[in-house]
Inverse folding.
């Protein structure tokens, strides 16, 4: 669905302040992936994904990005169509809310697509309900009166109203308490039923391990590799080379194994960890 070929990018090129952010990136994201992108601050994660819906345009002779075989380096790129297909939810998306009612805010994307007003309203209702909010109770309210969690859901609804096929999430749970994080990730799993491909940037390794089926590790603008969660978090060598921290669940499993408990060090799931501990206790 997304094919990145030899992609490079330089901020402020041909100036004394020029900084290269990406170096020959090669990456394939498949239809149906819950694809994680991880790496330290400054690794190039946001710069990379901002190419996927042309928020950042590909520089001349700096590689290609194909989305469903549409070449994003084309001079006459249909950006409106692309952004209907590839939805982007930024870090702290609630700061992007701007209209005087929730419904109008969520209708903004469909309105820009040139859809009839009735279809705009229908999409807004469906998107608001999809993110778990009561349309009749919230549609006419100001988004600025809502709680932080509600604002984030409204911002997500605004993207979903475009009915994207690919959803890009940049640190979706940043600044949210643990309970709120879990609820938001459960919501994103529900969203995946209608938006099959999700790309998520996150510093939270528990979320990456628990939800992603493939993970790209970025470091200083290069891809160090793409791994399955168990492959990445089960290999100390890979972790050390990539500078990646363990998920808390895996860290606990490793700690128990180091203390002599007969338990798999590559566990990435809470329920699996509980089962392994119980099983180890039976054989103790």
């Amino acid at each position: 669905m997304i094919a990145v070929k030899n992609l490079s990018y330089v901020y402020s090129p041909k100036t004394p302040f020029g900084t290269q952010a990406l170096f020959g990136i090669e990456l394939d994201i498949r239809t149906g992936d819950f694809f994680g992108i991880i790496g330290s601050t400054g690794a190039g994660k946001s710069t990379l994904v901002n190419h996927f819906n042309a928020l950042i345009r590909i520089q001349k002779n700096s590689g290609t990005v194909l989305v469903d075989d549409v070449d994003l380096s084309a001079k006459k790129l249909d950006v409106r169509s692309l952004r209907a297909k590839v939805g982007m939810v930024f870090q702290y998306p609630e700061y992007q809310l701007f209209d005087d009612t929730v419904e109008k805010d969520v209708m903004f994307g469909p309105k820009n697509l040139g859809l009839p007003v009735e279809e705009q309203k229908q999409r807004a209702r469906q998107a608001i309900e999809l993110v778990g909010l009561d349309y009749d109770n919230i549609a006419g309210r100001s988004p600025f009166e809502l709680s932080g969690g509600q604002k984030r859901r409204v911002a997500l609804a605004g993207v979903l109203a475009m009915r994207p096929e690919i959803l890009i999430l940049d640190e979706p749970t940043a600044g949210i308490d643990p309970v709120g994080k879990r609820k938001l990730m459960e919501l994103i799993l529900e969203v995946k039923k209608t938006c099959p491909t999700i790309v998520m940037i996150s510093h939270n390794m528990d979320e990456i391990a628990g939800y992603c089926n493939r993970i790209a590790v970025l470091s200083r603008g290069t891809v160090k590799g793409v791994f399955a969660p168990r492959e990445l978090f089960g290999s100390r060598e890979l972790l050390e080379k990539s500078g990646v921290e363990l998920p808390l669940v895996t860290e606990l499993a490793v700690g128990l194994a180091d203390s002599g408990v007969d338990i798999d060090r590559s566990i990435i799931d809470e329920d699996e960890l509980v089962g392994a501990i119980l099983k180890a206790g039976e054989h103790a």
Remarks:
- The chain has twelve helices and ten strands.
- The chain has a mean pLDDT of 92.
